[in-house]
Amino acid sequence: MQATELSERIEVIKRTLERSSGYGYTTGWGALFFGAISLIPSIHFYRTGLLLTEPSQWLIFCTSWLITFLVALFGLGFGIWLTARRHQMPFLSETVKAIGFVLSPSLLVAMVLTALFYQIDQFSLAPGAWFICYGCGFLSASIFLNVGMKLFGLIYLLYGTAYLLYFHSDPHLMMMIGFGALHLLLGTVLLVTGGRTKEEA
Questions:
Q1: Which of 26, 74, 94, 120 is 20 to 30 A from 143, alpha carbon to alpha carbon?
Q2: Is pTM, for the whole model, over 0.70?
């Protein structure tokens, strides 16, 4: 009985990995979209010199980036819906559910740390936690998506660490690079490689 259950689970994993290759171009365009719209708030705040020393300023910063993340998520979701429709798969396929499941812990930790930094009046440290949690999410999802996702996960971990240790005094420039430029680079890599999984690479 245990051998049968194990075989079924292995088959589910194999089927999930095979289907995940169809989302490579979708995540590529999604990363480009996220990178492009991330430049809007980061450049605006960089040019206006918004300081993150007061709760009101922090609220403006967080609200703007929350809207940016939600718009990017909507764009990615729309792309996934189109891809699922083209491949005659349900929108909430096994791949999408699996990726959402492995990303949820990183999202939860980012939210908790953001609330913590708010309570201790260390507003400028929050983006560093976002970068690190984002990198952890990439590493978790790399089993299902492009082989380069693991590399980008490591880059975000190092980037977030460097931010917290050395560069937290310039959050807008670091957000411009981290969520803007790096996403544009990631999207380009995903489009070029076509979202190959580890087995296809």
A1: 74
A2: yes
Number of domains in the chain: 1
pLDDT tens-place values along the chain, 201 residues long: 455 655 555 455 445 444 544 555 567 788 899 999 999 999 999 999 888 888 889 899 999 999 999 998 888 778 777 777 776 767 666 666 777 777 888 989 999 999 999 889 888 899 999 999 999 988 887 776 666 678 888 999 999 999 999 998 899 999 999 999 999 998 888 778 765 444 444
**Cβ pair 41, 65 in contact under 8 A:** yes
The reply to whether 14 falls in a domain is: no
In a domain, 145, yes or no: yes
Cα within 13 Å of Cα(138), Cβ side = 24
